[in-house]
Amino acid sequence: MSGPATPVFRFAPSPNGRLHLGHAYSALLNADLAVRTIGRLLLRIEDIDPVRSRPELIEAILSDLAWLGLRFAAPVRRQSRHMETYRAKLGALAARGLAYPCFCSRSAIRARTATTSGSAAVDPDGTPLYPGTCRQMPEAERATRLAGGKPHGWRLDMARAVSAAPGAYAYRAFDPDFEERSVSADPVRWGDAMIGRRDGATSYHLAVVLDDAEQGVTHVVRGLDLEAATDLHVLLQRLFGLPSPRYHHHGLIRDANGEKLAKSRGSIALADLRAQGTSPAEIRARLGFS
């Protein structure tokens, strides 16, 4: 394996529900790779959602991870404590003309795209691409709305962003044996992605890019469902002049119906398995770890 003398990995759950087997697999894989490379393992709590992130869920995450026998280098990073940093970086993009305020609600965007003839283009998550309504808004109207305190998020002006950071986009991917390959990235397929939320919080995309750089993360190990997001992250890294970690997007743990485990689907939590008498060793063996 090539790279820095001390690899840095991170496990970064969101406290909007209890951890399930999918989270356990990702955490254990990060820990396993950190041990194999004599690297550091960090824990980051991605609590940017002020409504769904609750203190008791953070405590539950810490409890579950300790029960699994996982240990992380201090300190634990809490994204909610770094909002001013994210806002400053977002402001820097806006000052460069690379981000603009978006006053459209989700329902308004759905209604707008529903009236578009033909099949609407979608981003990698299957969401219709933003039609650019607020990007095309006259500057005077935009200023009036901002001065009036009208709720808004912030979107990346994709065309301007790629013009500001020209060239081919790619990142280094690695497998669990640390064989590497170059992967082409296409951030344009995300369109004018939301990078600042209407509630004043940052987006996942902006926060994760800034945090990985701030924490010196060299190897990002996360689920396959986030692979496409890496295209957008590579662009943001280039815009901010940040290093790009190596990436491994692992397969997802699925239920008996072939659906990926998810909090929203009510997938059985680690806490429930604990209550049923399942041991950490049994969890490790079930997920393929000794």
List the main descriptive attributes of the protein structure presented here.
Rossmann fold; globular; about 15% strand; about 290 residues; single chain; protein biosynthesis; 10 helices
Description:
- This protein has 290 residues and is of the alpha/beta class.
- The chain has a single domain (8-286), classed as HUPs (Rossmann fold, 3-Layer(aba) Sandwich).
- The protein has helices at residues 21-36, 55-67, 83-95, 106-114, 139-147, 158-164, 204-214, 229-240, 270-275, 280-286; strands at 8-11, 40-45, 73-78, 99-102, 153-156, 170-174, 180-184, 194-196, 219-223, 246-250.
- A 3-stranded parallel beta sheet has the order 1-2-3.
- Helix 8 links the parallel strand 9 and strand 10 (246-250).
- Helix 7 crosses helix 8.
- The relative contact order is 0.18.
- The model has no long low-confidence stretch (mean pLDDT 93).
- Residues 10-280 form the Glutamyl/glutaminyl-tRNA synthetase class Ib catalytic domain.
- This is Glutamate--tRNA ligase.
Number of domains: 1
- Average pLDDT, to the nearest integer? 93
The CATH class designation is Alpha Beta
CATH topology: Rossmann fold
Q: Distance between the terminal alpha carbons, to the nearest Å?
A: 23 Å
Runs with pLDDT <50, length 5+? none
The CATH superfamily appears as HUPs
Q: In percent terms, what proportion of residues is strand? A: 15-25%
Family: Belongs to the class-I aminoacyl-tRNA synthetase family.
GO molecular function, one term: ligase activity
Organism: Methylobacterium trifolii
Keywords: Aminoacyl-tRNA synthetase, ATP-binding, Ligase, Metal-binding, Nucleotide-binding, Protein biosynthesis, Zinc
